[in-house]
Amino acid sequence: MPATWSESVEKAPTGGGVGATSHASRSTYVPPHLRNRPPSASADPPPSATVSYAGTLAGNESQGQGGPAVGGFQSYGSRNDLSGGGLSRGGGGGGSAWNNRNGGWDRGREREANPFQNDGVPEPEFAVQENSGINFDAYEDIPVETSGKDVPPPVNTFAEIDLGDALNMNIKRCKYVKPTPVQRHAIPISLTGRDLMACAQTGSGKTAAFCFPIISGIMKSGQSAQRQPRKPRMACPLALILSPTRELSIQIHEEARKFSYQTGVKVVVAYGGAPINQQLRELERGVDILVATPGRLVDLLERARVSLQNIRYLALDEADRMLDMGFEPQIRRIVQQMDMPPPGERQTLLFSATFPKEIQRLAADFLSNYIFLAVGRVGSSTELILQRIEYVLETDKRSHLMDLLHAQRANGVQAKQALTLVFVETKKGADSLEHWLCINGFPATSIHGDRTQQEREYALRSFKSGKTPILVATDVAARGLDIPHVAHVINFDLPNDIDDYVHRIGRTGRAGKTGLATAFFNDSNASLAKSLADLMQESNQEVPAWLTRFAARSNFGGGGRNRRGQGGGGRFGGRDFRKDSSYNRGGMDMYGGGSNMNSGYNQSGGYGGGYGSAVTSAWD
Ligand SMILES: Nc1ncnc2c1ncn2[C@@H]1O[C@H](COP(=O)(O)OP(=O)(O)OP(=O)(O)O)[C@@H](O)[C@H]1O
Questions:
Q1: How confident is the model at residue 575 (pLDDT cuts 50, 70, 90)?
Q2: Which end of the chain is more exposed for a tag (fewer CB within 10 A), N or C?
Q3: What is the end-to-end Cα distance of the chain in Å, rounded?
Q4: Which ligand 1 atom is nearest residue 506's CA?
Q5: Cα–Cα–Cα angle for 118, 124, 126, nearest 5°?
């Protein structure tokens, strides 16, 4: 069975509606500088070189791998096993006891593939070993803030929570020995049915924090999509997980499939850029949890192939991104203008590492009597990431990058265990830097919104596997991606928004591992100086004197995309906006929920931030 969509395309017979990416022959990645050459010249990237990393990078390398399998993407069924509509999912028994669904959704002819297979984790060994990478000591004294009515107490172990045998087994298979701080708090809250707005640092385990309660809730209820009254060929999922990018949706799907293995809960992913027919057929086979990007979901809703009438759980990952000006209209359409049950009748879970107050205000429209949870210095970066800011003129950036890469190479850590992610501002810039790196002997690939989905998936796989240990990316790769062994994040071009910086550097230093983040700063980044200096200080980083001078000089607090100065950050970045005096001025109940609250967001024209079209277009 093909592991990814790009593989399934490569292996499929010719033709068959693959759209823009339907190449007749097996597609080999061609770097941009070779793409227009005759076939004989357009072959592989330059010969693989050993890229090595120094000092802190070795720390990362030595920690081992905690994430999903390399190259792990969703599997699509073959085109030949689609007959019969696939709707005949035999139901589990009724009642509300555990395990009342079949132990796996392999009803009828369909068999549930083992999502752990790619991990190379021998089943019998999963019992004792801790997830090899995570350093829980790093989280021991992490500050936690909760607000809202009747907040359920946190737990210290998974055993304290009644998640069900099958899910507990999968937690062991994942080698999660104890919950991370956000899981300790968020899972008990969600299990009581409360709405939740949760902020927690990058790489701290938010995916499981929203997946576990959803999966266990579906298992416990004994509900399943196939037992709901449904129109023919219309999928009626019980849970919807939305994320801003295709790759993140793919990743969440992979994770959710592991967590729901043999629970009877079926997870399906739908995202843009991949053939919709394959996704439709997956949906026809039955779906309990639908993971989707907003654009593709709207398409499915318009075709009346998905109904949201049975939604019991709505989760927005990267919720602040999902509700900012780029996505907000689509999200409102999905959540408020289709057939989804309103707040109070469904459970809504919003997660991110950053949550500007303006977005919190907006998000309150989607929530009912919710609990706000902030774990760690939210909106700040983890101290596990060593941040370096270097003053580099625009014209010197490439040679400076080359110096960095040569220094890494000189230091002898294997490339596969120390990947480098380089962020640039534009798609053209990504292509051009990738080309330049390749011709200079550094195997690189790129990911951005102008590449086909097949190319994007191929690039990510090639990076994860270490075949091309440098990935040049736009912000499309800034959020959520959990790529083991990313040892170094380089902000070749700094973003305009400090929250974007937080997410970008969060691709390293995940799950308790250490990481290095280097940024090239020059006068064009002056508006970021203050928030950058503040962020570094909060994270106990050494702030260069020249940056402090820049910060003192710059007076950009009132506008632009630097939201930190507008209440999104602060000493404890994830403060509940309901605690603001301005929120209560109108006599609103401080923790009354706010589902009927008019945020005034639109009237005021939104916060000054927003994303320029170049950035927005990098997203799905
Ligand atoms: N309880 C746990 N024990 C060990 N490892 C865990 C645990 N929970 C999550 N992880 C691992 O931690 C890593 C980071 O998790 P995840 O991707 O959910 O982070 P995140 O908080 O969503 O990050 P981001 O803000 O970047 O989206 C993953 O590799 C995951 O498998």
A1: confident
A2: N
A3: 27
A4: 26
A5: 70
Find the 176 Cα to ligand 1 centroid distance in Å.
10
pLDDT, position 118? 63
Query: What is the DSSP-derived secondary structure letter of residue 418?
Result: S
At 520, is the pLDDT very low, low, confident or very high (cuts 50, 70, 90)? very high
Spell out a b/e string for 296-327, using b for 16 or more CB atoms within 10 Å of the CB, else e. Answer: bbbbbbeeebbbbebbbbbbbbbbbbbbbbbb
Contacts of 559 (CB under 8 A, 6+ apart): 608
Is there an atom of ligand 1 within 6 Å of 510 CB? Answer: yes
Amino acid 449: pLDDT: 96
pLDDT in tens, 86-125: 323 333 333 334 444 555 555 444 678 889 876 543 333 3
Choice among 495-499, 580-584, 596-600 with the minimum mean pLDDT: 596-600
> What are the structure tokens assigned to 3, written together?
């592991």
Bridging pattern class, strands 515-521 and 486-491: parallel
Does residue 263's CB lie within 6 angstroms of at least one atom of ligand 1? Answer: no
CA of 206 to the centre of ligand 1 (A): 6
Look at the alpha carbons of 420, 423, 426, 427 in this order and tell me if their dihedral is positive or negative.
Answer: positive
Distance of CA 100 to the CA centre of its chain: 31
What atom of ligand 1 comes closest to residue 67's alpha carbon?
29
Minimum-distance ligand 1 atom for the alpha carbon of 503:
26
Asked if residue 513 lies in contact with residue 60, where contact means CB atoms within 8 angstroms, the answer is yes
- The beta strands (E) that lie in 450-504 are given as 470-473, 486-491
**Is the whole model's pTM more than 0.80, yes or no?**
no
Cβ burial, residue 565 (10 Å; 0-12/13-18/19+):
middle
How would you class 19 by CB atoms within 10 Å of its CB: exposed for 0-12, middle for 13-18, buried for 19 or more?
Answer: middle
| Residue 377 confidence (pLDDT) above 80 | no
Long-range contacts of 21-25 (CB under 8 A, 24+ apart): 21/452, 21/453, 21/454, 21/455
Inter-residue contact 134 to 180 (CB < 8 Å): yes
Give the CA distances from residue 229 to residues 242, 273, 281, 309, in Å, rounded to whole numbers and listed in that order: 24, 31, 19, 10
Q: Vertex 388, ends 385 and 394: CA angle to 5°?
A: 135
Residue 210 near ligand 1, beta carbon < 6 Å? no
Hey, what amino acid is at 317?
Answer: D
What is the predicted pLDDT for the residue at 576? 76
Is the separation of the CB atoms in 273 and 452 below 8 Å? yes
Question: What pLDDT is recorded for position 553?
Answer: 87
Contact 506, 203 (CB under 8 A): yes
pLDDT digits (tens, 9 = 90+) for 320-333: 999 998 899 999 99
Phi, psi torsion values for 452, nearest 5 degrees: -65, 160
> Which helix (H) or strand (E) element contains residue 532?
helix 529-538
Give the integer Cα–Cα distance in Å for 383 and 386.
7
Q: Which amino acid does the sequence have at 53?
A: Y
Residue with token string 């004994």: 222
Identify the weakest region by mean pLDDT among 51-60, 153-162, 257-266, 544-553.
Answer: 51-60
The alpha-helical segments, DSSP class H, found in 325-365 are 328-336, 357-363
Q: Which residue has the tokens 């890229």?
A: 51
Residue 382 Cβ inside 6 Å of ligand 1? The answer reads: no
Average pLDDT of the chain to the nearest whole number = 75
Instruction: Work out which ligand 1 atom sits closest to the CA atom of 180.
Output: 1
| Cβ pair 87, 284 in contact under 8 A | yes
